[in-house]
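Let's study a protein:

___
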Amino acid sequence: ALLVVEGTRFALLAKQELVSTPVLFRVGGDPVTSGLVKSLRTPGGNLSGVTSTGGALQSKRISFLVDLTPRGSNIGVLHNPQNPNHALEIMHAEVAARSFGRDIFAVGASDPGEIEAALRQLATNSLGSLLVLTDPFLNAHSKNIAGLALKYQIVSVFGVRGAVEAGGVVSYRMDVTEMYSQLGVYGAAILRGSKPADLPVVAARKSKLEVNLRVARDLGLTVPTFLLGLADNVID
């Protein structure tokens, strides 16, 4: 009666394979640009859902890296080459980095065996900070990535919570509870007879910021007071 999917890649697959089953998605980035819906206001077809605005998120995450490493080098970006959203997300990160006078260095990983090689490449190129793009594969391995970043003395910013607890310095993400609550509202509406084509795609608004002060100290960082004041959770 209804399918709920996580991530643009799987939402696109659902759109391709299911032409009549209602599909709700939770994605990052722009679902119009990726081809999921015709417009946010009137999706058309059999898909609707919730999105987080990738450009604003990447800009904020880059700014946190700059705040943490004011005299730092350029910024590494870890992405999954198989994620159709990541070319646009890398562009957003690049624009944000350049606004602070920095460049980015993108490395990819789509297999568990490629993760440490990517982190080692960043360390070899003396890149001391890392933005990890959100993606189902990278999210699933976020704790491993965070641990490796700490091993190679790289300041890392994520979009998932568990990474900060495992060795990341900052996690900045949209409020998942809010997003799933909206999917629940839409799911109930569809089961009562509403069509996804008539349900506008909702942009998430609430964000969550977490800082691991203990890891920051281990990396020799001074976390700005204002950043701690903004945090919803500080691990110390």
Summary: The first helix runs from residue 8 to 17. The chain has a mean pLDDT of 92.
